[in-house]
Amino acid sequence: TMYILNKHRLDMGILIGDDTLSRIDLFLIPVISDGKIGFINKKGEMVISPRFEDVRDSFISEDSLVRVKVSNGKWGVINSIGNFIIPFVYKQINKAGRYLYEVQIEEYNRSCRGLVDSNNQTIVPFGVYGNFYPVYEGGKFIIVKTIDLKMGILNERGTLVIPAIYDAMQFPGSSLPIVAAWRGNEIIKINLKELG
């Protein structure tokens, strides 16, 4: 019998037994001990010891990567055996597609963002774009906004496939692969499927 993490209140959890634990549809299950978050398997065995302040994502399979925050307030990414895949040096980490992460650092008292892959290799250097908006099929494409507020589109490898020359872009959020782009009074429809 153990407590399972309540993400909204770290001082509270759900008491469950082994039979319930075995039916949870996760590869690893978050637990809390002394205010720190760790992960157990379905047998109740500790796999990753409690040492994290916050967790985003879930270990739905052995190949999952999970964003976690350590006590210095920095974010990183771990795999299902607890190895650090992306080091704990970032102020913030957001998923930006299937293979990419938007990472944020503080530089000269301002926030700078960039894109790294799951091996922490820089795909887009810090400060090139101000914002990243993953769209279509879980982030197959990323709408970017430059520092001077122009918008373009990256593919999932971080390559600019539509130049950042548009004043605004809108993705309807449906299964349709169409982005509307405005340049002055002109509206252009961009079919993401045609971009490959």
Can you describe this structure?
With 196 residues, the chain is mostly beta strands. The protein is 3% helix and 54% strand. It is built from 1 helix and 20 strands. The chain has one helix at 18-23, and strands at residues 2-5, 13-16, 29-33, 36-40, 46-52, 54-56, 66-69, 75-78, 84-90, 92-95, 100-107, 110-117, 122-124, 129-135, 141-146, 151-155, 160-166, 168-170, 178-183, 186-191. The strands form 6 sheets. A 4-stranded antiparallel β-sheet has the order 6-7-8-9, with no helix packed on it. Strands 10-11-12-13 form a 4-stranded antiparallel β-sheet, with no helix packed on it. The longest helix has 6 residues, at 18-23. The model has no long low-confidence stretch (mean pLDDT 85).
In terms of topology, how is this protein built?
Elements: E1 2-5, E2 13-16, H1 18-23, E3 29-33, E4 36-40, E5 46-52, E6 54-56, E7 66-69, E8 75-78, E9 84-90, E10 92-95, E11 100-107, E12 110-117, E13 122-124, E14 129-135, E15 141-146, E16 151-155, E17 160-166, E18 168-170, E19 178-183, E20 186-191
Antiparallel strand pairs: 1-2, 3-4, 4-5, 6-7, 7-8, 8-9, 10-11, 11-12, 12-13, 14-15, 15-16, 16-17, 18-19, 19-20
